[in-house]
Amino acid sequence: MHYLLLGVAIICEVIATTCLKLSDSFTKLLPSIATVVFYALSFYCLTFPMRTLPTGVIYAIWSGVGIVLIGVVSWLLLGQKLDWPAIIGMALIIVGVLVINLFSRSVAH
User: Fold this and answer.
1) Is residue 109 part of a domain?
2) Which residues cross the membrane (predicted)?
3) How far apart (Å, rounded) are the C-alpha atoms in residues 40 and 5?
4) How many angstroms separate the Cα of 80 from the Cα of each of 9, 22, 76, 77?
5) How many whole angstroms separate alpha carbon 26 and alpha carbon 44?
6) What is the number of structural domains in the chain?
């Protein structure tokens, strides 16, 4: 269940960050409200995995997966470009998250 809520926290963070871009520095009302609401939901959902998993591991997964998803969403929905160094860097982030989840003893609780 903690990984499900971590996933929800990541998705909410990606939505919030996308809305932050769309808010145009908080000058557009609906994206601004959505930014605040989805960041609040993200942090709320993030509190539940913290009951059972180490904070460093949770943050590594949350931020790493969030970075990759924001990059993909920005590319697909906002028309932003990703060059090869950005793509390789994101692939390394994915590998890092996999290493933590597959091999770290910190995750096994």
Assistant:
1) no
2) 26-46, 58-78, 84-103
3) 14
4) 24, 13, 8, 8
5) 22
6) 1
* 25, 45, 50, 51, 94 from 55: Cα distances, Å: 30, 13, 6, 9, 18
The sign of the CA dihedral 98, 1, 63, 106 is negative
- Cα Rg for the chain, rounded, in angstroms? 15
d(Cα 56, Cα 47) in Å, to the nearest integer?
13
Domain span at residue 38 reads 2-103
48 CB-side CA count, 13 A: 14
- pLDDT tens digits, residue range 21-76? 999 999 999 999 999 999 999 999 999 999 988 888 898 889 889 999 999 999 99
pTM of the model: 0.85
